[in-house]
Amino acid sequence: MQPIYLDYNATTPVDPAVAEAMQPYIAMHYGNPSSGHAFGRKAKEAVEEARARVAALLGCTSEESIFTGGGSESNNAVLKGVAYTYRQQGNHIITSQIEHPAIINPCRFLEGQGIRVTYLPVDRVGMVDPDDVRKAITPRTILISIMHANNETGTLQPIAEISRIAREHGVLVHTDAAQSVGKIPTLVDELGVDFLSIAGHKVYAPKGIGALYIRGGISIEPLIHGAGHEFGRRAGTENVIFDVGLGKACAVAKADLPRYQREVCQLRDLFQQELEKRFGDRIVLNGHPEQRLPNTLNVNFRGVIGAELLEKLPEIAASTGAACHSGEVELSSVLKAMGVPEELGMGAVRFSLGRYTTREEIERAVELIERAFRT
Ligand SMILES: Cc1ncc(COP(=O)(O)O)c(C=O)c1O
Question: Which residues make beta-bridge pairs with 94?
Answer without folding.
Answer: 118, 144
